[in-house]
Specification:
single chain, 83 residues, mainly alpha
């Protein structure tokens, strides 16, 4: 997709930006991330991960936060390769 097409798209919404922001954070132990997903975003963890996975394929997300999106894409590809 060329830059012109990306620029014509709507910017990321607040929820999408919040998902990426949560992914940038570190969490101290098991359950802490899921608790933050529920409390801060009001989402079930399953729905959160569905949204996150879709965001990883969205060029707008890559433009918004390339470091986080590229890191998560690498993690996803590693997991897929292990299956």
């Amino acid at each position: 997709m060329d830059q012109e097409q990306v620029g014509d798209r709507e910017p990321l919404g607040d929820r999408e930006q919040a998902v990426l922001a949560l992914e940038r954070r570190g969490f101290p132990g098991p359950g802490a991330k899921e608790r933050a997903i529920r409390e801060e975003l009001g989402l079930a963890p399953v729905r959160y991960y569905q949204l996150l996975n879709a965001l990883l394929d969205d060029e707008r997300a890559l433009a918004h936060d390339p470091v986080t999106v590229n890191r998560l894409r690498r993690v996803r590809e590693t997991r897929r390769a292990e299956r």
